[in-house]
Design goal:
Function: Catalyzes the decarboxylation of orotidine 5'-monophosphate (OMP) to uridine 5'-monophosphate (UMP).
Protein name: Orotidine 5'-phosphate decarboxylase
Pfam families: OMPdecase
Strand order of the largest sheet: 1-2-3-4-5-6-7-8
Keywords: Decarboxylase, Lyase, Pyrimidine biosynthesis
Enzyme class: lyase
CATH class: Alpha Beta
Number of helices: 11
Shape: globular
Length: 231
């Protein structure tokens, strides 16, 4: 992914025409898009291939959590599509993360990122599933595990970026969802941030969703996000 352009727009859409319309309206303003399970299921992998063919970088947010063989096969399929990033779930353990990293070696431009703790989860949510550690501690624990497994970076809440940057060093990718412009809703993310604050804390990339995709003028909204980064 291009560090000079840290903004990734989340195409969290339930149909292909809506997603394609957003891409069309953003035009050359946006270089990078996130495609998650919702859009992948609705539009299929061909849509991802079309984005890549248009010169767009695609962050394929699969949150893979399966046996290592299946994870490796999914990563190879993502690499064949030409995506730039793919996610595995850190809670799956070192085995699946190593399998993902090894599978990505055949695709030099593909980066494997580990999801630490889902950004909508609170300490109470973790306790419900038997994790007796605060979300911040669990994030750092999984980030260390991901680094040891060879992952290129992590997905994490904006509030944890500073500690993660210190822990992982300057070369790691840290992608922060839960980012919105000042005064706008961050959706279901428990610990949101503004674009500029996330970047200043040490994020390499930020993921922006409805602040851009639901704006009356997505291109103008994208420029506001870029201006917030610059400030």
């Amino acid at each position: 992914m291009d560090h000079s352009e840290p903004i990734i727009v989340a195409l969290d859409c339930d149909n292909r025409p809506t997603a394609a319309g957003i891409v069309e309206r953003l035009g050359d303003e946006c270089r990078s898009y996130k495609v998650g399970l919702e859009l992948l299921t609705a539009a299929g992998p061909d849509f991802v291939g079309e984005l890549v063919a248009r010169g767009k970088r695609v962050f394929l947010d699969l949150k893979l959590f399966e046996i290592p063989t299946s994870v490796a096969a999914a990563v190879r399929a993502a690499g064949a599509l030409g995506v730039s990033m793919v996610t595995v779930h850190g809670m799956g353990g070192a085995g699946i993360m190593r399998a993902a990293v090894e599978a990505a070696r055949d695709f030099p431009r593909l980066r494997v990122l580990a999801l630490t703790v889902v950004t909508s989860m609170t300490d109470a949510d973790l306790a419900d599933v038997g994790v007796g550690r605060p979300a911040r501690d669990q994030t750092l624990r999984l980030a260390r595990l991901a680094g040891a497994a060879g992952c290129h970076g992590v997905i994490a809440s904006p509030r944890d970026i500073t500690e993660l940057r210190h822990e992982l060093g300057g070369g790691a990718l840290i992608v922060a969802p839960g980012v919105a412009l000042p005064g706008q809703s961050p959706g279901e993310h428990a610990h949101p941030s503004t674009p500029g604050a996330a970047l200043a804390a040490g994020a390499s990339h930020i993921v922006v969703g409805r602040a851009v995709t639901r704006a009356a003028d997505p291109a103008a909204a994208f420029r506001l996000v870029r201006a917030d980064l610059a400030s």
